[in-house]
C-alpha cells in the first residue's frame, strides 16, 4: 500500500459530476485503468472520512479504505473500462463491498478473483407480493411476526427444519428451483421471475468440496444471522406505475414480504476453497496483485474455468416479463428503514456493466456499532416507529441498527440521479424477523 498524507492522496481524486468521482492512475501502483465511484454529498463525506482515517499516523492493519480497494482492483490483469464503486461502496475483503469490474475474456492475462463475489456467495433478496393490504394485517401484525419467527430457523448456528440427506443437497445444487418445485416449496410461476429461471444449466456439484457440502447440509432452508432478515413490508410509494404493475404491485398500501439471505457456511467454504486454489495458481503463473486478498487466476486456467458468465442486454434468460422494464433490482434497507425496487437502465449497461447497488452499505464496523449503540435503545426506537421485531440474538441488534449503515435513500437516489438504475417502488417495514 502506498502511504501518503491525506492532502497528497486527494490530488489523485477528481470530481467529474455531482454524483461521481474519478480515481486517477498512480493512486495505487500498477493501475491498468482509472477507478470511479458514485456518491452524493452525504455519501461522499463517509468515503473521504474513511480515507482520512486511514492516513492518520499508526493506522496500520485492518481493511483498506474503499477508495484504495477500488484502485487495487484497477490494477488487476485484463481489467477493461474502469474499476467501479457503486453508491453502497465501503471497505471489504480485497474488493470493496459495492466494487465491480469487468475483464476481457479474450485476453489470456485476464483473471477471475473470488474477492469480487465475497464469502457469502449468492447472498441476495427475494420480494414476495401478496393480495393483502395494510388494513388487512395490522390487527394481526404481532401474531404474524411471532408465527414467522417460530417457523423460520434464524440466528447463528440455526439448522434447517427440512429433513435433508446428502443426495438432496446434491440435487438442490444442480437443479436449483426445479428441486424446490419438485419438493413443493415454490410455485411454477416463481421460476418465471428469477434470472435463468432459477437454475444454472451448467451447474456441477462435483466442483464443490465435501467440506462445503457438509457445512451446508444442515443449513439449507435457514435465514442465518448478520444483516439477513425476513420483513413484512408495505408499498409506500410508486415511482414507475407501469413497471410496478408488471411486477404485480398495484397501489400504495399493498403488503409484500422481503427475504434477505445467503449461503451461510456453505458459501463461505466454497469461497475459502477457491481462494486456496487461486493462491496456488498465482504462484504457479507468477501473477502479482497489490493486495494478497485479491487472490486470482487466469480466466483460461483450470482454476478460472467455470467461474465466468455475464448476460448481454435482452438475453433470453432474463424473465420475459422484465424485458421491457429492465431487470428488477431489489435493494434491502437496514433494520427499520425502507427498501426499494429499482429497474436496470441502458446507461447502467454502458457505465457500470449492468451493475447497481446491493444495499445501503455499512457506515460503522460491527465492533464500533457494539461499542457505540445500546440494543435496548435500538429496540425502543423500532417500537416507536410501529415496527414489530423478533430477534434470535438481541445483543447483536446494535450491529444492524440503522445508525450502523449508510442512508439507503441516499444510495438509491444516487443510483437514480447517475442513471445507472431507476427508482420504481419504495417499501417500509412493519415487522422484522432477524437472526
Question: What can you see in these coordinates?
Answer:
The relative contact order is 0.15. Strands 7, 8, 9, 11, 12, 13 and 14 form a 7-stranded mixed sheet that branches. This protein has a 5-stranded mixed sheet with strand order 1-2-3-4-5, with helices on both faces. The protein contains 15 helices and 14 strands. It is of the alpha+beta class and 435 residues long. Helix content is 30%, strand content 21%. It has helices at residues 6-9, 41-54, 66-73, 134-137, 141-151, 166-175, 177-182, 188-191, 210-216, 241-246, 264-285, 346-352, 366-372, 375-384, 408-418; strands at residues 13-17, 20-23, 35-38, 79-90, 97-103, 111-112, 124-133, 229-238, 254-261, 297-298, 328-331, 339-344, 388-391, 421-434.
Give the SSE layout.
Blueprint: H1 6-9, E1 13-17, E2 20-23, E3 35-38, H2 41-54, H3 66-73, E4 79-90, E5 97-103, E6 111-112, E7 124-133, H4 134-137, H5 141-151, H6 166-175, H7 177-182, H8 188-191, H9 210-216, E8 229-238, H10 241-246, E9 254-261, H11 264-285, E10 297-298, E11 328-331, E12 339-344, H12 346-352, H13 366-372, H14 375-384, E13 388-391, H15 408-418, E14 421-434
Parallel strand pairs: 3-4, 13-14
Antiparallel strand pairs: 1-2, 2-3, 4-5, 6-10, 7-9, 8-9, 8-14, 11-12, 12-14
What structural keywords apply?
15 helices; seven-stranded mixed beta sheet; alpha+beta; tRNA-splicing ligase RtcB; 2 domains; 435 residues; five-stranded mixed beta sheet
Q: What's a quick, concise take on this entry?
A:
Its EC number is 6.5.1.8. By secondary structure, the protein is an alpha+beta fold.
Amino acid at each position: 500500500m502506498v502511504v501518503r498524507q491525506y492532502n497528497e492522496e486527494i490530488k489523485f481524486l477528481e470530481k467529474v459530476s455531482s454524483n461521481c468521482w474519478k480515481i486517477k492512475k498512480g493512486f495505487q501502483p500498477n493501475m491498468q485503468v482509472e477507478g470511479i465511484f458514485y456518491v452524493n454529498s452525504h455519501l461522499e463525506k463517509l468515503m473521504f472520512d474513511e480515507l482520512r482515517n486511514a492516513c492518520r499516523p499508526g493506522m496500520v492493519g485492518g481493511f483498506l479504505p474503499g477508495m484504495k480497494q477500488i484502485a487495487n482492483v484497477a490494477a488487476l490483469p485484463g481489467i477493461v473500462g474502469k474499476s467501479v464503486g457503486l453508491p453502497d461502496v465501503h471497505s471489504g475483503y480485497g474488493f470493496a463491498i459495492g466494487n465491480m469490474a469487468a475483464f476481457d475474456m479474450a485476453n489470456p492475462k485476464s483473471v477471475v478473483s473470488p474477492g469480487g463475489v465475497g464469502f457469502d456467495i449468492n447472498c441476495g433478496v427475494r420480494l414476495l407480493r401478496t393480495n393483502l393490504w395494510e388494513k388487512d394485517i395490522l390487527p394481526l401484525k404481532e401474531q404474524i411476526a411471532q408465527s414467522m419467527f417460530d417457523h423460520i430457523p434464524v440466528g447463528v448456528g440455526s439448522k434447517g427444519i427440512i429433513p435433508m440427506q446428502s443426495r438432496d443437497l446434491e440435487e438442490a445444487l444442480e437443479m436449483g428451483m426445479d428441486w424446490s418445485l419438485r419438493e413443493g416449496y415454490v410455485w411454477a410461476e416463481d421460476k418465471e421471475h428469477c434470472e435463468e429461471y432459477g437454475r444454472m444449466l451448467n451447474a456441477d456439484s462435483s466442483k464443490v468440496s465435501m467440506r462445503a457440502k457438509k457445512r451446508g447440509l444442515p443449513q439449507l432452508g435457514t435465514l442465518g444471522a448478520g444483516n439477513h432478515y425476513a420483513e413484512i413490508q408495505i408499498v409506500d410509494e410508486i415511482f414507475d406505475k407501469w413497471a410496478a404493475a408488471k411486477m404485480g404491485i398495484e397501489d400504495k398500501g399493498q403488503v409484500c414480504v422481503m427475504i434477505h439471505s445467503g449461503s451461510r457456511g456453505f458459501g463461505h467454504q466454497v469461497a475459502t476453497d477457491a481462494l486456496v486454489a487461486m493462491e496456488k495458481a498465482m504462484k504457479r503463473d507468477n501473477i502479482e496483485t497489490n493486495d494478497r486478498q485479491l487472490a486470482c487466476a487466469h480466466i483460461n486456467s483450470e482454476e478460472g474455468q467455470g467461474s465466468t458468465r455475464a448476460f448481454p442486454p435482452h438475453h433470453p434468460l432474463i424473465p420475459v416479463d422484465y424485458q421491457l422494464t429492465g431487470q428488477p433490482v431489489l435493494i434491502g434497507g437496514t433494520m427499520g428503514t425502507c427498501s426499494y425496487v429499482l429497474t436496470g437502465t441502458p446507461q447502467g449497461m454502458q457505465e457500470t456493466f449492468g451493475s447497481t447497488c446491493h444495499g445501503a452499505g455499512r457506515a460503522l464496523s460491527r465492533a464500533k456499532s457494539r461499542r457505540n449503540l445500546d440494543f435496548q435503545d435500538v429496540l425502543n426506537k423500532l417500537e416507536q416507529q410501529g415496527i414489530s421485531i423478533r430477534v434470535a440474538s438481541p445483543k447483536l441488534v446494535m450491529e444492524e441498527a440503522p445508525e450502523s449503515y449508510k442512508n439507503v435513500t441516499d444510495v438509491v437516489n444516487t443510483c437514480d440521479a447517475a442513471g445507472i438504475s431507476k427508482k420504481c417502488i419504495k417499501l417500509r417495514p412493519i415487522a422484522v424477523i432477524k437472526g
